[in-house]
């Protein structure tokens, strides 16, 4: 007789750590108990917690939290990569943001993380052909978080957006894995073109605050864009660009600029 193999429990260290931190947070501040329980401890998985958090943030008189929750649950069930990307984002934020001391913080408090997870939901709807619902999600993300990302944009995993105010990313933009950007970044077009018209950001790129990258240009992997720069031409991998318009001012300075978050421009002479 064939032996019945026992079920192996799924291990999710990110979710387990969030739950442990949630328990500690309630112990430290009991007044946060209701909020933390409904947002984290009431749920059996990160997918469920994300669906709840996104639905509560995006709900309005036009669309209830319950309806949005059902849509989000459907998305996480149909496409597991959505939650896997969220896990990578949490780890990236914890590693790169000195203001992040717990995995719990992005899920509960950081609008950059929440906006990106809501965008991933809208992008899933967009790929399913549910365009109007995707545009509704985009509208609410813009209204609630001040982050405007077209649902057609492609966003990689391990993304860290610090502060996340006034981020604009256009329809045909592509952002690679392990990218870091600060507030007021624009990945936009240069006119009224209707085809492929937005930037392609390589893996490991660091984009400083207020930088504008315009047009269908490629920003090579592990490059740095200095704060306030306007980039109108392609950038080779592992370079640093700065200025208006941006010019190459040196090498990237390290192998992983998006992880070190070093934005200082050093001159030698």
Automatic annotation (TrEMBL):
Give the matching Pfam families.
Hexapep, SATase_N
| PROSITE patterns, alphabetized | HEXAPEP_TRANSFERASES
Give Gene Ontology CC terms.
cytoplasm
Where are the annotated coiled coils located? none
CDD domains assigned to the protein according to its UniProt record, in alphabetical order: LbH_SAT (cd03354)
The pathway entry for this protein reads as:
Amino-acid biosynthesis; L-cysteine biosynthesis; L-cysteine from L-serine: step 1/2
Single Gene Ontology BP term? cysteine biosynthetic process from serine
**What does the record give as the reaction this protein catalyses?**
L-serine + acetyl-CoA = O-acetyl-L-serine + CoA
Provide the E.C. number(s) assigned to this enzyme. Answer: 2.3.1.30
- State one molecular function term (GO): serine O-acetyltransferase activity
InterPro entries found in the cross-reference section: Hexapep, Hexapep_transf_CS, LbH_SAT, Ser_AcTrfase_N, Ser_AcTrfase_N_sf, Ser_O-AcTrfase, Serine_acetyltransferase, Trimer_LpxA-like_sf
Q: Where is the Serine acetyltransferase N-terminal domain?
A: 14-118
Quick check: keyword Oxidoreductase in the entry?
A: no
Enumerate the UniProt keywords alphabetically: Acyltransferase, Amino-acid biosynthesis, Repeat, Transferase
Membership in a protein family: Belongs to the transferase hexapeptide repeat family.
Q: What protein am I looking at? A: Serine acetyltransferase
| Protein's organism | Pseudooctadecabacter jejudonensis
């Amino acid at each position: 007789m064939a032996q019945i193999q026992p079920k192996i429990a799924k291990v999710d260290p990110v979710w387990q750590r969030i739950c442990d931190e949630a328990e500690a947070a309630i112990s430290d501040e009991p007044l946060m108990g209701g909020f933390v329980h409904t947002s984290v401890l009431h749920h059996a998985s990160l997918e469920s917690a994300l669906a709840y958090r996104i639905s509560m943030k995006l709900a309005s008189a036009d669309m209830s939290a319950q309806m949005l929750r059902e849509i989000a649950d459907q998305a996480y069930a149909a496409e597991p990569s959505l939650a896997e990307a969220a896990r990578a984002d949490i780890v990236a934020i914890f590693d790169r943001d000195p203001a992040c001391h717990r995995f719990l913080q992005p899920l509960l408090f950081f609008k950059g993380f929440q906006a990106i997870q809501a965008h991933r939901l809208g992008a899933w709807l967009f790929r399913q052909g549910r365009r109007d619902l995707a545009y509704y999600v985009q509208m609410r993300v813009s209204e609630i978080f001040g982050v405007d990302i077209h649902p057609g944009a492609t966003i990689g995993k391990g993304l860290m957006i610090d502060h996340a105010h006034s981020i604009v990313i256009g329809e045909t933009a592509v952002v690679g894995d392990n990218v870091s950007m600060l507030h007021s970044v624009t990945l936009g077009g240069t006119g009224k073109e209707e085809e492929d018209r937005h930037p392609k950001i390589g893996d490991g790129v660091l984009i400083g605050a207020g930088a504008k990258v315009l047009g269908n240009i490629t920003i090579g992997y592990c490059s740095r864009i200095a704060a306030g720069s306007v980039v109108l031409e392609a950038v080779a991998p592992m370079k640093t660009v700065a200025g208006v318009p941006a010019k190459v001012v040196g090498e990237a300075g390290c192998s992983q600029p998006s992880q070190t978050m070093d934005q200082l421009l050093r001159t030698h002479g």
